[in-house]
Amino acid sequence: xxxxxxxxxxxxxxxxxxxxxxxxxxxxxxxxxxxxxxxxxxxxxxxxxxxxxxxxxxxxxxxxxxxxxxxxxxxxxxxxxxxxxxxxxxxxxxxxxxxxxxxxxxxxxxxxxxxxxxxxxxxxxxxxxxxxxxxxxxxxxxxxxxxxxxxxxxxxxxxxxxxxxxxxxxxxxxxxxxxxxxxxxxxxxxxxxxxxxxxxxxxxxxxxxxxxxxxxxxxxxxxxxxxxxxxxxxxxxxxxxxxxxxxxxxxxxxxxxxxxxxxxxxxxxxxxxxxxxxxxxxxxxxxxxxxxxxxxxxxxxxxxxxxxxxxxxxxxxxxxxxxxxxxxxxxxxxxxxxxxxxxxxxxxxxxxxxxxxxxxxxxxxxxxxxxxxxxxxxxxxxxxxxxxxxxxxxxxxxxxxxxxxxxxxxxxxxxxxxxxxxxxxxxxxxxxxxx
Length: 435
Fold this sequence. Notes:
- The chain has helices spanning 3-11, 26-35, 47-54, 65-73, 108-117, 137-147, 187-197, 210-240, 245-252, 276-286, 292-302, 304-318, 346-356, 388-392, 408-414, and strands at residues 16-20, 39-43, 77-79, 90-93, 126-129, 158-161, 180-184, 204-207, 327-331, 360-364, 396-399, 418-420, 432-434.
- By secondary structure, the chain is α/β, with parallel strands linked by helices.
- The model has no long low-confidence stretch (mean pLDDT 94).
- The termini are far apart.
- It is built from 15 helices and 13 strands.
């Protein structure tokens, strides 16, 4: 297979792009490919997603439906028929990589997706794995499945790993402007992967192997996890000393070198930072390495909901109330502000613990109208509309997610008691407690 001719197909937009997994990573990727003139086919096993996309409807808050409609009018289609992958020159895998109940990597989605496309693999196709995973997944798991077709990697077909770097709700960096790391099984694989991504992304960063690319994504997120763990620990120390950690961080951030501000919170959320470190610690054990530093940060971050619950108990005690039978309102259940993604949100652990202590739980989130089913905690609750009268009816309001849509002054004026986990309110009082 002539590598140069394949590269030209991407440069002249003749290639057909297939994206497998139509969620927070896959959908923005599709829109970008369509935007620059590629024909794109989306694949998913969730028929409800497929139906909505084909009608021009979005199911992700920060992606407007008119963008989806424009894509469908330009020829984009979604399907659950994986035999259609034969029409594609590139197949980009964007499926979840969660942890199982033992906090070990669950690569079942990657494995099943690869098995679904393997029978239809043909000469000239590029396969790119974007799902975050441990070093070795692409060559140890994906490649052997694709090899079953009898084609040779690097000559008959091409395989790369290029980790997703989506940051939902980020107004400054999107798919186009966020540099893309890419590593190939062979130099030929890298050349074709680089040629494809260069058509939609301003800067592609090539690395020597798929393992280097896999490790790059883990380092990025472990860097954040460790620093957030540090500042969460500092928050507890500062609280014991009567110091506002947010004031300290803002002051430290005025140093123009050698310091990057990270902010504490109620715990980690999302599909990356709470999960990715465990991928590396699990794989490191295979090499006889104990990742003590990474695991310690994970322990601190995982314990933050416990700290929040203890502060709620302290705050209610100051009001001569117990947690049991208190009406508690959770403000925000998304894992970060201004998005509708609540995967791994610390809000659920806080709600679970308070519920077990006998509190009567409600929540309000402008992006999530009802609690979706999840493995951590589920109550059939719908979001409460905020008003002075509704807020006054709760014994305690816990600010978990600092959405910009919240009217913080109204919340402050109308609530009996606020536990602030995000540092929104500058000062503490009998009414406002920092956690």
